[in-house]
Amino acid sequence: MKRTKRVLIAKPGLDGHDRGAKVVARALRDAGMEVIYLGLHQTADQIVRAAIDEDVDVVGLSILSGAHMTLFPRVLELMKECGAPDIKLIGGGIIPEDDIAELERAGVTKLFTPGTPTSDIVAFVEAL
Amino acid sequence: MADDLEFQDEKRRWLEGTYSSSPEDGRPFVTVSSEPIEPLYGPGDVEDLDYARDLGFPGEYPYTRGIRSNMYRGRFWTMRQFSGFGTANETNRRYHFLLERGQTGLSVAFDMPTIMGRDSDDPMSEGEVGRCGVAIDSVVDMQALFDGIPLGDITTSMTTNAPASILLSFYLVAGERQGVPFEAIGGTIQNDILKEYIAQKSWIFPPRPSLRIITDVMKFCAAEVPRWNTISISGYHIREAGSTAAQELAFTLADGMAYVEAGIEAGMDVDEFAPRLSFFFNSHVDFFEEIAKYRAARRVWARVMKERFGATKEDSLLLRFHTQTAGCSLTAQQPENNIVRTAYEGLAAVLGGTQSLHTNSMDEVLALPSEKAAEIALRTQQVMAYETGVANTIDPLAGSYFVEHLTDRLESQALAYFDEIEAEGGVLEAIERGYFQRRIADAAYRYQMEIEKGERVIVGVNRFSHRDERQDIELLKIDPEVENEQLEGLRRVRGERSEEAVAEARGELHRRAEGTDNLMPAILDCVRAHMTLGEIVGVMKAVFGEYREVPVY
């Protein structure tokens, strides 16, 4: 039997805009997944440590402050360093298309832009 | 009244007969806050409305029709575009650009490290410097930000909350160094920490010491900076976080009452500080609901200030407010449509009697505004002011059965929320128990589900879109070099100052933080000694501690 997906949702960096992260966390939970919502102002280190401790399949990060080109790569790097390269990293926020392409090339599994239905995110995570 | 009773009977007859003979198309008739809207309003829907008691005249109690007697016939609202990015020098160039194009006030957007009271070289700041606003580490940056802009001639609004006392001090000292005395300086700091715990989540210290800092600022400014608005009590972020219009109205006014109570508890007379309280609301896309919200806000605030707090000065009763169009209504898809949304939202704010307005740029859902997008946003206001004629008469929608009904409804919903907050033990207790946070998260989730079920149409997102759309508007790029440039400036400031003066200023701030003397004179001396934002916050953190939120979703 396929195990229930475990997803960690967090807000890295200093950005406090948590509406999107919370809506997505609730949608994933309502779809039957196990969701750990880590909350605001998390460092890459805290996120990766929690992801490993909680044995999650997917980490979802929301960034609206423009710091995405620093924070996503840092989390990816740490996941590799900590021997957890199988955990999938997804995310969303205010991220221009060019940056999305670059981050997805660097190893982020998927970035969602504003306006994405939560049902798309649920389906994507289910299929991972 | 007999006429009204008759109207209600006639309305029922019409609804069941004439109206129902043609079918509705099946879509839900609700506001953006999910409030039901009837097909028609008439005299019976505003039967309790008493003109003299509930509306009155502009500039007269209860100010429903406007806080000034002449409103926009005296002068237009202030066109105040929020802006900031990169270094102080870059933002200074944008300010000159906007002022040359007819903007009439300034509004500073700080980057996340500055908002959170951290220096650019703090480990948490990496990647965030100058990204979503301008980076300000010390008074030297603040001086560069306003280079060539005489601070005695312009008013500036600064979106800063947890470290507001320090950013205000940077501004005052920058003015001092231009030769402008404190009493000639005018502007606003947001300084509304309660809504940070509730919605925007940019806090540093726990609530109680935060309120002490705020009352220190209120006292200091009442005596020394009389033209400064010491708090801009903000519903904007509450709404952006997902609340309804009624929640935005109620939670904001409840925060306002909490500040008034804090001021009174700190030993001030209500009329000493209330005239310098101002408000900041959202303008979402539901046109009439927003207009009604502003009208209700003025009436409720005037009554609360007079009846509950016994204010006697007229200025204490006036709800002056800034409006920003709703960032959360903008779409990444077909971004040019955002120009249209913003124009409607701006119009609602003006018909609602705002004192100043920020119209969003079409690209804000993708990045910080480009020069072109920022100019269109400003032009949107200028077209409204100079071409449409909407500012020729005051409160033009008064007397509309629909608008008056909505105004009454929002007022009574706000009063019901006040009771709920009271039952939670007041604003601070309600924050600690997650009351606001839960309410807002519920409303945000419901709104999202309405969109996904297709009950709510967002043009270009869940209707009227096609598959092969690509963004083809030019976006503002922040040069990664900004961070290095900022770090270099910060090192220079630390290298060139007198450490003796720093130690002295630091010691005095620490002493005051532990005691009860006003913090502001000590913060000003720290600033004059070129202490950085993070260093000054560090002194206060050592005494006040840090806030931690229990996350709820």
| Order of the strands making up the biggest sheet of chain A | 2-1-3-4-5
Strand and helix order of chain A = EHEHEHEHEH
Radius of gyration of chain B: 24 Å
Number of helices of chain A: 5
Walk me through the topology:
The complex is a heterodimer of chains A (128) and B (553).
Chain A: E1 6-12, H1 19-30, E2 34-42, H2 44-53, E3 58-63, H3 68-81, E4 88-93, H4 97-106, E5 110-112, H5 118-127
Parallel strand pairs in A: 1-2, 1-3, 3-4, 4-5
Helix pairs in contact in A: 1-5, 2-3
Chain B: H1 2-16, H2 51-55, E1 78-83, H3 88-100, E2 105-108, H4 112-115, H5 139-145, E3 155-158, H6 164-177, E4 186-189, H7 194-200, H8 207-224, E5 228-229, E6 231-234, H9 236-240, H10 245-265, H11 270-273, E7 277-283, H12 287-308, H13 314-317, E8 321-325, H14 337-351, E9 356-358, H15 371-386, H16 401-423, H17 427-432, H18 435-452, H19 481-496, H20 499-514, H21 520-528, H22 533-544
Q: In words, what does this structure look like?
A:
- The complex is a heterodimer of chains A (128) and B (553).
- Chain A is α/β, with parallel strands linked by helices and 128 residues long.
- Chain A has one domain: Rossmann fold.
- Chain A is built from 5 helices and 5 strands; from the N terminus they run E-H-E-H-E-H-E-H-E-H.
- In chain A, strand 4 (88-93), helix 4 (97-106) and strand 5 (110-112) form a beta-alpha-beta unit.
- The radius of gyration of chain A is 13 Å and the shape is globular.
- The two termini of chain A are 15 Å apart.
- Chain B has 553 residues and is an alpha/beta fold.
- Chain B has 22 helices and 9 strands.
- Chain B has helices at residues 2-16, 51-55, 88-100, 112-115, 139-145, 164-177, 194-200, 207-224, 236-240, 245-265, 270-273, 287-308, 314-317, 337-351, 371-386, 401-423, 427-432, 435-452, 481-496, 499-514, 520-528, 533-544, and strands at 78-83, 105-108, 155-158, 186-189, 228-229, 231-234, 277-283, 321-325, 356-358.
- Chain B has a 9-stranded parallel β-sheet.
- In chain B, helix 20 packs antiparallel against helix 21.
- Chain B starts with a helix and ends in a 9-residue tail after the last helix.
- Chain A binds chain B through residues 13-19, 21-23, 25-27, 37-41, 43, 64-67, 69-71, 74, 94, 96-97, 113-115, 117-119, and chain B through 112-113, 115-116, 118, 123-128, 131-132, 196, 200-202, 240-242, 328, 331-333, 365-368, 441, 444-445, 448, 451-452, 458, 461-462, 470-471, 475, 478, 480, 549, 551, 553.
